[in-house]
Design brief:
Distance between the termini of chain A: 72 Å
Number of domains of chain B: 1
Largest interface: A-B, 109 and 113 residues
Oligomer: heterodimer
Number of helices of chain B: 17
Structural class of chain B: mainly alpha
CATH architecture of the largest domain in chain A: Sandwich
CATH topology of the largest domain in chain A: Immunoglobulin-like
Number of domains of chain A: 3
Radius of gyration of chain B: 24 Å
CATH topology of chain B: Cytochrome C Oxidase, Chain A
Number of strands of chain B: 0
Number of strands of chain A: 12
CATH class of the largest domain in chain A: Mainly Beta
Largest sheet of chain B: none
Number of helices of chain A: 10
Radius of gyration of chain A: 28 Å
Helix content of chain B: 55-70%
CATH architecture of chain B: Up-down Bundle
CATH superfamily of chain B: Cytochrome c oxidase-like, subunit I domain
Order of helices and strands of chain A: HHHHEEEEEEEEEEHHHEEHHH
């Protein structure tokens, strides 16, 4: 049995040593390969630190990693040394006299009580700096853009009160702008997280439970390209069956481009073909849950919100659905096939979805697809 | 009635009040539940091996995730620790039994029935799916209308009762039943960590008990403690849960620390380095453990002051923990280290626990935590602490005390093969999860898409989990092989041990000590074997005497019937329509059994 365990121990050492080198291969394993040097550059990369908030986190993170690394070496080197140096075989053990019976050493024990305290201060002070740098609700700089983020099982609603815009699952932002997100939930606890921007903050249900996340949006990485830069977000608190499928995208625009996006948002859908016209009629069935601005569905929403207590529509606002990259809360690309699959049987794509199979005929789905995917496409 | 009960066979086990037998029952039951929790883990890992996998549904995954956490904590690590408490406490402090032997049996039966009730939920397809933390209001009646959450709430309520009864029992035992001469600072270190653990249980469990009652009221009687629609607050549940939940972490790790602190000196042939400081560190960890609960809630919007204070308190825990780690290394230093399986597990505990502790220091900082919270980085962290830490130590304890419990050494070769399979499998599973967390993979997701860059490390993690499972199979083979062949008989003091249990024959007689021991030193048994200048002298082993001359508590059916009655009360809450009658029936059974118990000759 001994050679077997020895072989396994050797194999485990080799494997853990090659772990780091293997890591660099992670990207090439996936559908979207990543550069070797940037294997953390995944859509949900937590180390990107693109905003001031994210940079603050990375600052503490770097210091902490170094200190923790030092401590790890300070523990593992003596541990490994002691185990190797003082190991005795069974034969030796039978003949050796008792080793020196050491019961303790006050100076040593005092030392390794004090040193960690000092090291921890080096983590604690930057931590507190960053914590107190992050403004509370009453400290948010005036002139910051307010965006209401409302969590739903399992999609995101985004409202821009200053612009009179409501949208869903695609969070459009102007670059280099101070914004604060007012987070609230209509059902259970969610957590609002765009890893490349910075940390997460929980989205709590209940009056007075709103959380406020302040940050300055990142600058464009490739300013020469139009159409905005996409960052993935995802709910980070277990919120029921389709928690894993509650994603969204943040889109950062050049300031002028963002203003154009906000302006065309107020245009009604452009219904051109007969199929789109038919789709507009089919969409009448959808209006109790979905809104498209400048259509009758918006009036329904206004009436619902005027009730006491206000009633939120159960489904996302679809005003700019045609120009969204993804559907079903960032889980599928917005293609005709995926649209059909979704409308035909939403729970098959998103378990527990509140949108149930509506029993629409294939022709009806085709029509409403034309209406939603083309009439609502916004050019900006 | 009690006197005519048999002393061998199934009935003798059901009615036993012997702490050693109850300890064995705790251990065996814990491993049966480990099988459940392990299968749940393997299913989850298989589902996540590749992106967009459809092996299990979202609902099943949430149940597996919930039951894996609940099972491993409440039905494996806690009862396995309880197995050690039960078997070892009286032997280590020189007592004939625990203070309340029938209460001891009661706590075992409540634990067993509670665990069975929880797992019965799978049979009726109502396995809890709200996570082991069961956050309101997702677990309220509106969002979880079925009885699945009720299974969890009532199951944990029952299991908490078992732990609370046991905690009181061991606290009283340790404080009142130590043999002559064993002052508090002459107790074995394992007894110290046991004592601190019982204090934590007694202080932490009532919090979750009250919170569970409130949640039961919310779900069964329409109150709104945790329901915003009813004027309640969801954040309340999180505070209640973590005021219990964080001490719970130390309830899981402290017994493991005690076990390691017994194994390392024995196989280094040196006393524990800095015993007194180790005792104070354990107490400090236990005390600080109550002041850090909100670090589980850094992303809930606590505000900067709460974040700053709770992060400071959390970092402070690293200090006594660090002291322990360096004292363990110093225990090894200059010793004569024998590579027994038990020692391998104990030494790996130091390494793995340190690693998990250091990643814990990282997210004691709220800004860092805001990125790590609810990602696989945290999954990696606490598995390093509780699996690489607590579970590895518990396995070390099993290899160390198995000869004492059953009278035979376990097979060392198989033991080492298991150890290396565990080390390899464990690190292969959980080390890559640090990467996954940094790549932003959230916890508790039943699937992920292939464009996230998470595929490779998930596959590696899954392969590691199968290697660990193989290690588990080797362990079972080892136990069966050892108990069937009975080849390697263990003498009383089979490892050249330091504490009183090694003065007893292996296995110890039912009455424990024929002659009441009297101790003069810490590690008194060692001092009976070695003089100050290191010369070996012959110690006085405990003699065997006729058991009839010893008064032992009588076996009893009543503890099991009381436990059954309490479980029937809980079942009533899970049945619609006639549920009330079932609960009332349970109350009647419980009261009758308590009546029988009280008037039974002890």
């Amino acid at each position: 049995m001994k050679p077997i365990s020895k072989a396994i121990s050797r194999a485990s050492c080799l494997l853990s040593a090659s772990m780091f080198s293997l890591y660099s291969l992670a990207g090439s394993f996936d559908e979207h390969p990543y550069e070797l040097s940037a294997s953390f550059k995944t859509p949900m990369d937590t180390l990107a630190g693109l905003t001031d908030w994210g940079q603050g986190i990375n600052y503490v993170y770097a210091i902490t990693t170094i200190i923790v690394g030092i401590v790890f070496l300070a523990v593992s080197i003596p541990l490994i040394y002691a185990i190797r140096r003082f190991r005795v075989s069974d034969e030796e053990f039978a003949t050796l006299p008792l080793p020196k019976q050491v019961h303790g050493n006050v100076i040593l024990e005092f030392t390794w009580t004090i040193i960690p305290v000092i090291l921890l201060l080096f983590i604690a002070v930057p931590t507190w700096q960053i914590i107190f740098r992050q403004p509370e609700k009453h400290q948010i700089p005036p002139g910051s853009m307010r965006i209401e983020v409302i969590g739903h099982q399992w999609w995101w609603e985004f409202r821009y009160p200053s612009l009179g815009i409501t949208t869903a699952n695609e969070l459009h932002l102007p670059e280099k702008t101070p914004v604060y997100f007012e987070l609230s939930s209509v059902d259970v606890i969610h957590s609002f997280w765009i890893p490349q921007f910075g940390g997460k903050l929980d989205v709590m249900p209940g009056k007075g439970a709103e959380n406020y996340l302040f940050l300055t949006t990142p600058s464009l990485q490739h300013p020469e390209q139009n159409g905005g830069e996409y960052y993935q977000g995802q709910c980070a608190e277990l919120c029921g069956l389709s928690h894993a499928l509650m994603r969204f995208e943040a889109v950062v625009h050049e300031k002028a481009e963002f203003e154009r996006w906000a302006a065309v948002f107020h245009n009604p859908p452009v219904v051109q073909t007969a199929l789109e016209k038919k789709g507009e009629l089919v969409f009448m069935q959808c209006m109790s849950c979905h809104t498209i601005s400048k259509t009758p569905s918006e009036d329904i929403e206004k009436q619902m919100l005027a009730m006491d207590p206000p009633v939120h529509k159960a489904g996302p606002n679809l005003t700019d659905f045609g120009s969204r990259r993804m559907l079903a809360a960032g889980t599928r690309t917005n293609t005709a096939q995926n649209f059909h699959d979704w409308v035909d049987n939403p729970p098959s794509i998103k378990p527990g979805s509140r949108m149930v199979p509506l029993g629409l005929s294939k022709a009806d789905i085709e029509a409403v697809a034309a209406y939603l995917r083309y009439s609502t496409a916004k050019t900006y | 009635m009690a006197k005519c009960l048999p002393t061998t066979g199934v009935i003798s086990w059901i009615t036993t009040v012997d702490h050693k037998r109850i300890g064995i029952m705790y251990g065996v039951t814990a491993f049966l539940f480990l099988l459940c929790g392990g299968i749940e883990a393997l299913l989850m890992r298989t589902q996540l091996a590749i992106p967009n996998n459809t092996l299990v549904t979202a609902g099943t995954f949430n149940s597996l995730m919930t039951m894996h956490g609940t099972t491993m904590i409440f039905l494996f690590v806690m009862p396995l620790s309880a197995a050690f408490f039960n078997f070892l406490t009286p032997l280590m402090i020189g007592a004939p039994d625990v203070a309340f032997p029938r209460m001891n049996a009661l706590s075992y039966w409540i634990f067993l029935f509670g665990g069975l009730l929880l797992n019965f939920s799978f049979a009726v397809r109502l396995a809890p799916d709200g996570g082991w933390f069961n956050y309101a209001n997702l677990t309220g009646k509106v969002f979880s209308p079925s009885h699945a959450i009720d299974f969890w709430v009532l199951g944990i309520q029952i299991l908490g009762l078992a732990s609370l009864i046991a905690a009181i029992n061991f606290l009283v035992t340790i404080l009142n039943m130590r043999c002559k001469g064993m002052t508090l600072l002459k107790m074995p270190i394992f007894i110290w960590t046991t004592l601190v653990t019982q204090v934590l249980l007694i202080l932490a469990l009532p919090v979750i008990t009250v919170a569970l009652v409130m949640m039961t009221f919310d779900r069964s009687f329409g109150t709104g403690f945790f329901d915003p629609a009813g004027g309640g607050q969801v954040i309340m549940w999180q505070h209640f849960f973590w005021i219990f939940g964080h001490p719970e972490v130390y309830i899981l790790i402290l017994p493991a620390m005690g076990i390691v602190s017994e194994i390392l000196p024995t196989f280094s042939r040196k006393p524990l380095f800095g015993y007194t400081v180790m005792v104070y560190s354990s107490c400090a960890i236990g005390f600080l453990g109550f002041a850090v609960w909100a670090h589980h809630m850094f992303t809930t919007g606590l505000g900067p002051w709460a974040q700053a204070l709770f992060s400071a308190a959390t970092m402070l825990i690293a200090v006594p923990t660090g002291v322990k780690i360096f004292n363990w290394i110093s225990t090894l230093w200059g010793g004569q280290i024998r590579f027994t399986t038990a020692m391998l597990f104990a030494m790996s505990f130091i390494a793995m626990f340190t690693f998990g502790g250091l990643s814990g220091v990282m997210h004691s900082s709220p800004p860092i935590d805001s990125q790590h919270q609810d990602t696989y980085f945290v999954v990696a962290h606490f598995h390093y602490v509780l699996y690489g830490g607590a579970v590895m130590a518990l396995f070390g304890g099993i290899f160390y005390w198995f000869p004492k419990v059953f009278g035979y050494y376990m097979h060392e070769g198989l033991g080492k093969a298991q150890f290396w399979l565990y080390m390899l499998g464990f690190n292969l599973t959980f080390f890559p999860m640090h990467f996954l967390g940094m790549q932003g993979m959230p916890r508790r997701v039943f699937t992920y898409s292939g464009d996230q860059g998470w595929s490779l490390w998930n596959l590696v993690a899954t392969s590691g989990s199968y290697i660990t499972a193989l290690g588990g199979v080797v362990f079972v083979i080892n136990i069966v092989y050892t108990l069937i062949t009975k080849k390697n008989k263990a003498p009383a003091d089979c490892w050249d041990g330091r504490t009183l249990e090694w003065s007893l024959s292996s296995p110890p007689p039912e009455y424990n000590f024929a002659v009441d021991p009297e101790v003069k030193h810490l590690d008194d048994w060692w001092h009976q074997k070695y003089t100050h200048d290191g010369r070996r002298i012959t110690p006085r082993y405990q003699p065997d005497v006729d058991p009839a001359t010893k008064h032992l508590p009588h076996p009893s059916f009543w503890p099991m019937i009381v436990a059954a009655g309490l479980t029937i009360i809980a079942i009533g809450f899970l049945v619609d329509g006639i549920g009330h009658y079932i609960s009332v029936g349970g109350v009647v059974v419980t009261l009758l059994a308590v009546y029988g118990w009280v008037f039974e000759e002890a």
